[in-house]
Specification:
By secondary structure, the chain is an alpha+beta fold. It contains 17 helices and 12 strands.
């Protein structure tokens, strides 16, 4: 499922904003009148600039692959007077890295560079954002490679489970297609002209948010940010499009695929969005379920049942408003019913009793140690500020977050589990099995296209 993993995320990284590494978050304005937020971190070794453009593409368009291919083409097709190889080489020579990536609600990006090379790196980033070449030959090449990668990706059982779960939860809406990226005619229905139109409408100043962190002064960072944004058109302010309300029916879907050697199990349930706060408590709680060393799921599936594959828990997002908890793993087919019963018992006890004293202390200490190791790094700080801004929260709040985490108690985390973690009977369960399964109330299908019959 999309966005599963990359992250220990928001409130793990957000909490880097603490202690004595820096003392305030400042709103600055560039010479061209663009406002952004900056955290001066004297001990940081690099400058980090994070950008996010609001987009409604996932909710209003029937060609979902355009942004994914577009962000790749902006780098790979060359920009300004540089070809693709020169862009990569010049960033490398400057000790800099730059990237763009896609989410449901925003096109996100970052520039991380040595302070002495920040101006030169910003000039390259400016061309990539405001003057990409977007040639048709590179478009065709990237599109073809993207399609091949997606076909391989979609053959994996965990990816198919995610697609089936989203189809059940989100139904037939544009967001489902955007997250799923179905291969086939959708990849034949757009050209490089669609990429150019998308680029023109997306990369504007009106829908852009910028955060920055690093050791340099306020005037210098304002000048560097201005290089990046000043050539972008003003554009029109977008009104955010909303997704259709997710439905967590709790119905089980079984996909029978005789070619599979293992059974794949995936549970997906709703969690509150990060903008409501206290989501760091969710990560503390989930670590007790999913840590490979001492978690409840690991101990039960690998040790008690002697299953030889992995099983764990994580947190993901369909969009900024739709956040979910996921239990997933693969196992021997003959252990399927035992694992389903074990997961049910473990999670029921988890919601009823919460974390033990030892589980809470191990998880909380791990978080604190991780934060301490990263609190002087510019990139996590700029990222964290951006997350708060996109949740419509003041980035200054980050200054208090590590103190909040250190103040968490076992009772507070257990109360969060009881009030915010979904009952198992409301979670979407998807099982991909080489043989039919007798699961009460389940909907059995033989291929992915039959999923609508299960709703």
């Amino acid at each position: 499922m999309k966005n599963f993993g990359a992250q220990l995320l928001l409130l793990t990284i957000v909490s880097f904003f603490s202690d004595v590494a820096f003392s305030k978050v400042i709103e600055l304005e560039t010479a061209s009148g663009f406002k952004f937020h900056y955290a001066q971190v004297p001990e940081a070794k690099k400058v980090a600039i994070f950008v996010a453009w609001q987009t409604n593409w996932a909710y209003e368009n029937d060609v979902p692959a355009v942004p994914y291919i577009g962000v790749d083409l902006m780098f790979s097709g060359g920009a300004g007077q540089r070809n693709a190889a020169e862009i990569t080489a010049d960033f490398d020579d400057l000790g800099s890295s730059a990237k763009l990536y896609v989410s449901a609600d925003h096109i996100r990006g970052s520039l991380v560079t040595l302070p002495e090379n920040a101006r030169a790196a910003a000039l390259i980033a400016k061309d990539v954002l405001s003057n990409p070449t977007l040639p048709d030959d590179w478009f065709q090449r990237i599109k073809s490679q993207f399609l091949q990668n997606m076909q391989r990706h979609k053959a994996r059982a965990n990816v198919q489970s995610g697609s089936l779960a989203r189809a059940m939860i989100l139904g037939d809406q544009s967001l489902t297609t955007f997250l799923d990226l179905p291969v086939g005619t959708l990849f034949d229905s757009f050209t490089v002209e669609d990429i150019k139109s998308w680029h023109k409408s997306t990369f504007t100043r009106s829908n852009l948010r910028v955060t920055a962190a690093g050791p340099i002064g306020e005037d210098e960072i304002a000048s560097i940010v201005d290089i990046v944004v000043s050539s972008l058109p003003i554009g029109s302010v977008l009104a955010h499009s909303k997704m259709d309300e997710p439905v967590f029916s709790g119905r089980t879907v079984v996909l029978v695929d005789p070619k599979r050697k293992q059974t794949s199990i995936t549970y997906v349930g709703v969690l509150p969005p990060t903008r409501l706060g206290n989501d760091a408590q969710d990560w503390v709680a989930v670590s007790a379920l999913s840590s490979p060393d001492n978690s409840r799921l690991f101990a039960a599936i690998r040790n008690k049942l002697r299953a030889t594959y992995s099983f764990g828990a994580s947190i993901a997002n369909f969009s900024r408003e739709s956040r979910v908890i996921v239990f997933s793993g693969e196992l021997e087919p003959d252990k399927t019913q035992d694992v389903l019963h074990e997961v049910r018992d473990i999670y029921r006890g988890f919601r009823q009793s919460g974390l033990s004293t030892q589980e809470f202390e191990v998880a909380n200490n791990w978080f604190v140690n991780a934060l301490e190791a990263n609190r002087k790094k510019a990139a996590p700080i700029a990222y964290a500020m951006m997350e708060l801004i996109l949740d419509e929260l003041p980035p200054q709040q980050a200054l208090d977050l590590i103190r909040q985490i250190k103040s968490y108690t076992r009772d507070a985390v257990n109360q969060r589990i009881a009030s915010s973690f979904p009952p198992l009977n409301t979670m979407q369960l998807v099982v991909i099995s080489p043989t039919p399964l007798d699961i009460e109330g389940s909907c059995t299908i033989k291929n992915m296209t039959e999923i609508a019959s299960c709703r």
